[in-house]
Amino acid sequence: VLMGMPYGSMPRKTVPRAEQATAMDFSVLWDFEGYIKYSALFYGYYNNQRTIGWLKYRLPMAYFMVGISVFGYSLMVVIRSMARNANESTADGDDENFVFSWKMFTSWDYLIGNPETADNKFASITTSFKESIVDEQESNKDENIHLRRFLRVLANVLIICCLCGSGYLIYFVVKRSQTFSKMQNAGWYERNEVEIVMSLLGMFCPPLFETIATLENYHPRIGLKWQLGRIFALFLGNLYTFLLALMDDVNEKLAEEDVVKNITRWTLFGHYNSSMENSTATPPPLDPADVPRGPCWETTVGIEIVRLTVSDILVTFVTILVGDFIRACFVRFMNYCWCWDLEAGF
């Protein structure tokens, strides 16, 4: 009921005859082509109508928007998780946090029994408070307010340049991928250039933002809000640019689909005319694998989003494997024969 007729019952659920020989190759399946492209994983398996029902519900547009919304919601979940982890890390009992509260509630020694010792301890705590107040005032004193404003403006200009550069780079590689898709012998990098570039931007841009943010010298909590906002703007801008670049490809596929539909009508007309000529028998059915079919833009967009998701997962896995596991093993076993203490530095 949910998926309708089974595989092989109609052209949109059947691998074309020319692709069946390589439809189960790993390289083809890795690119989500072959049998995966015509499976229940993508929209083209279910329906080929623009609207359904008497309300003219635009099902392809709903499929497209739901996929984008899920991807955008996942970005929101990632940003909220980053904010929660940052708040938990800053809420630990560190000496740099809540300095005056620590001095107020933990400085007194309750084992003191001598009045003179108690007076000395009281004077010591008072002096410590005065020194902490002076240090806090010195740290908050602006030596050159114009320099700080200039550095903050410079930091925002650099971050805006990074955001615009990442958007242009994504638009450029998506356009290049449309050219590569028309090539017969495109390499692995040409087929996966978009996913590689977007994954690398998502991996290297946030640390770059954090490095640039040191110029602003904000309070850690304010700096965290700026950092999370910039990361969200990066992810959302990259996704918007990615979809904007795909729109041109979608328009090309819609035009190609109209041409193929016209060719399909004439092909079927010629097939049945040749079969019925000088014969009263029923013409043989045309196999769904031999029917010409145009590109399905919903399936194309779905494949690109799935590729992007899988690429992000692989990059995250490799980053954790190299950045945490392999580094921990190296420090654990090489610390005995190293010139300094690796565990203290890493």
From TrEMBL:
Keywords: Membrane, Transmembrane, Transmembrane helix. It comes from the Eukaryota. Pfam families: TMC. One of its GO terms (cellular component) is plasma membrane. The chain crosses the membrane at residues 61-79, 153-174, 194-215, 227-247, 305-326. Residues 296-338 form the TMC domain. InterPro entries: TMC, TMC_dom. It is a multi-pass membrane protein. GO terms for molecular function: mechanosensitive monoatomic ion channel activity; voltage-gated calcium channel activity. It is found in: Membrane. The keyword Transmembrane applies. GO terms for biological process: detection of mechanical stimulus involved in sensory perception of sound; vestibular reflex. Belongs to the TMC family. This is Transmembrane channel-like protein. The lineage of its organism: Eukaryota, Metazoa, Chordata, Craniata, Vertebrata.
